[in-house]
């Protein structure tokens, strides 16, 4: 195939990435958008009502807002690739991106909009109890805490949003905050204080987690006196802010001390010509959906200006051979919905309470079971990765799905407390559990010791 160079690639798909895509697409640059195989939509995918994005009086659900932004970018010609970029070479003249499936793309300009990931408390048992009481996403896992006691740690907007959402299910919600004043907006503070199910543990730091197989409580230390206490908790939702996702660029772009990508403000230009950055990976100050969207717009305009100044711009309908850089063409776009249909088809069959024993426990091959729910956006974002995995290991390992609402007996038997959870069964026994959405390559890495060798 002839070598091709694309004008522009956007890495990331929150409000910043999709807005940059919309502007670049309207400039006829046919941008490639690497949505990330399990992070498409960014942080808003695990948010409930968004009341402060202009243009939506009455508010809009986070996932719905992202679906609209995505649709608008795609309608103008943005090419959406549901894969993670795992390697970048941002050399000033020719920029090369490689995805987890090994496809390489050469582009003239890059917009980095990778957002920020959840910050962890850093406690010894935090990872061990993730999925067994510890969670970062109330909209994903809250429904498992009906009439239970839960704690939320943090004092910002996220913590109060999580706490308010959790009152739909939990009997009581304790907000644990390390100071005695909240950082959250006044409207959320008022709502939380007015909610009879919410109480506050002020000036408290979480120093330990109780529980062997599941969380039973959190150990607290008073930030002033050092006095120790304990709060019983079936669930702990961690909402203590985010860390910029800049690791991929650490050796190639200048970062701030906090790990954000440094830009030449007020522009979005980074330390490398032709590379622009926007949204939460840059912003340590505002971190709003609307400011991210605004900076995505700025990044697309900056990139346009940069491309116009190149001697051999890749113009008009998107890409044409230049011969200046070796490259491989883009993979065809596979819309997430199409993949989701495939996953419900033959590659990944649904099993129920009634069919579980026959189709999973008595299976002669290992079976990977994906416990999911219709209301879990992360579960649905993971479908393409799961379908790819099922295709790759077809005949060697079976992949099945259990809708936890349709098959509550099985979900309860296997103590599913977080969405999505994947369990690998061999000879009727669970041999490995994975909690949280994964890319195909991380699924393969986590299951490597259980995967049968393939003959080439
Ligand atoms: P945030 O505003 O940075 O708040 C993080 C909270 O966690 C702070 O209260 C902080 O305490 C606490 N914290 C940080 N590290 C901690 C640790 N190691 N142990 C215990 N507590 C710790 O983060 P966010 O709430 O995720 O919000 C991020 C941005 O998104 C903000 O700009 C926010 O306005 C925006 N947002 C907006 C909405 C909305 O408008 N609906 C919803 C969610 C988020 P201190 O206060 O003591 O520093």
Describe the protein's architecture and organization.
This protein has 456 residues and is of the alpha/beta class. It has 3 domains: 5-118 and 242-317, FAD/NAD(P)-binding domain (3-Layer(bba) Sandwich); 134-238, FAD/NAD(P)-binding domain; 336-447, Glutaredoxin, CATH 3.40.30.10. It has 11 helices and 25 strands. It has helices at residues 15-26, 62-75, 138-141, 157-166, 186-194, 289-308, 336-344, 356-361, 377-392, 408-413, 440-447, and strands spanning 5-11, 32-34, 49-50, 60-61, 79-81, 85-89, 95-99, 104-112, 116-118, 134-135, 149-153, 172-176, 198-201, 204-210, 217-222, 228-232, 235-238, 242-244, 275-277, 319-320, 349-350, 367-372, 398-403, 421-426, 429-435. Strands 1, 2, 5, 6, 7, 8, 19 and 20 form an 8-stranded mixed sheet that branches. The chain has a 5-stranded parallel sheet with strand order 10-17-11-12-13. The chain has a 5-stranded mixed sheet with strand order 21-23-22-24-25. Helix 1 (15-26) packs parallel to helix 6 (289-308), helix 7 crosses helix 9 and helix 9 (377-392) crosses helix 11. The two termini are 25 Å apart. Mean pLDDT is 87; it is low at 316-346. The protein binds NADP nicotinamide-adenine-dinucleotide phosphate. NADP nicotinamide-adenine-dinucleotide phosphate (NAP) is lined by residues 52, 121, 153-159, 161, 178-179, 183, 239-242, 287-288. Its EC number is 1.8.1.9. It comes from Georgenia yuyongxinii. It catalyses: [thioredoxin]-dithiol + NADP(+) = [thioredoxin]-disulfide + NADPH + H(+). Keywords: Disulfide bond, Electron transport, FAD, Flavoprotein, Oxidoreductase, Redox-active center, Transport. Belongs to the class-II pyridine nucleotide-disulfide oxidoreductase family.
